[in-house]
Amino acid sequence: MAEHDLIRFLDKVGQLQALVKSLEHDQKRRDQLASCSSHNQVVAIAQAWGFDIGRRWGEAVSGTDHADNLFQTRCPPLGEEVSCELAAGQGWQLKLICSNAFSSPEQSWMDQSEMEWVLVLRGSAQLRFQGDGGVMDLSPGDHLFIPPHRLHRVERSDPDPGTLWLALYWHA
Predict the structure, then answer these.
(1) If we measure between CA atoms, which residue out of 87, 94, 78 comes closest to residue 156?
(2) What are phi and psi of 30, to 5 degrees?
(3) Which residues are registered as beta bridge partners of 96?
(4) Share of the chain above pLDDT 90, in %
(5) Which of 60, 47, 61 is nearest to 16 (CA)?
(6) CB 56 within 8 A of CB 39
(7) Which of 55, 56, 122, 137 has the greatest CB tally within 10 Å of its CB?
(8) To the nearest 10°, the Cα dihedral for 83, 84, 90, 92?
């Protein structure tokens, strides 16, 4: 482990220890934390209390931007999702998508005419598929194929530093 990674790891452990200590004599905080139903809610409430526990191993500090490193992509404003084209050819397109606590508008569904293969590079997300497809939780390394006109929506994505997706679109 590199020294800077060790320092970040120890800082996160210290933040978690301080968070736990803050719960010892504060029943209201304990109740708020106990009511959380997802990792994202825990991270958000901890952040509101001044604790930085959200970054995962290997994630860069938010706000840095290096064009040659996808993991250094800036997070968009809260509640938004942005995409940029990385490469394209005849009938295909490769995009990088960054979501910051983004979810699709209620009752709206994405309906694409092209095929899509998507990979989560950073963070996590939850997709919902219309019909019997249900809900799918995605974490780093998870990928899936979405056929044309398979109605789906983003139920949630991580807050800053956000969920980073790599998506390949193509026509058959």
Answers:
(1) 78
(2) -60, -45
(3) 84, 166
(4) 59
(5) 47
(6) no
(7) 122
(8) -40
What confidence tens digit (pLDDT) does each residue in 97-107 have?
999 999 999 88
pLDDT digits (tens, 9 = 90+) for 136-156: 999 999 999 999 999 999 999
Both tokens assigned to 63: 């706000």
Here the tokens at position 55 are: 């970054």
How many whole angstroms separate alpha carbon 39 and alpha carbon 23? Answer: 17
Q: Closest Cα partner for 9 from 55, 41, 74, 46?
A: 55
The Cα 73–Cα 142 span in angstroms is 19
Contacts of 52 (CB under 8 A, 6+ apart): 11, 12, 15, 46
CA dihedral (36, 37, 42, 43) positive or negative: negative
User: Does the N-terminal peptide bond of residue 77 adopt cis geometry, omega within 30 degrees of 0?
Assistant: no
Whole-number Å distance between alpha carbons of 157 and 84: 18
